[in-house]
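::Amino acid chain::
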Amino acid sequence: TGSARTALTINDSLPGPLLRWREGDTITLNVSNSLDEDTSIHWHGLIVPFEMDGVPGVSFPGIKALSTFTYRFPLKQSGTYWYHSHSGLQEQVGHYGPLIIDPAGPDPIASDREHVIVLSDWTFMHPHRLFSRLKQEGGFF
């Protein structure tokens, strides 16, 4: 539309970068929060220890502003997943990305080429205003 909009990116990328790991490995990921607010990463669909699930106030305290948190968990499954923030409405302004966990053994559906496609919506409306509208009138959009 030619309109400027601020986005929340991971490593200057929207969506965030593809994370690719292998089933059976143990992941250690140091996440540095350069924001002036708390953030988090939820590993959508992954079986992880509760304190690594990334839901502030439920399974961990969140990643404080200008600090680093270390996620460490074993990969117990393979498949295609995604990660996103569970802090405020950060996901809605760009804090999400794709995640692939390759099988520990031979890939049962190996192919010559693959493409990772991330589908998302974008709006120029501030996410808090959008959320408020959706709560007031479900059919507004």
Observations:
- The helical segments are 127-136.
- The chain has a mean pLDDT of 90.
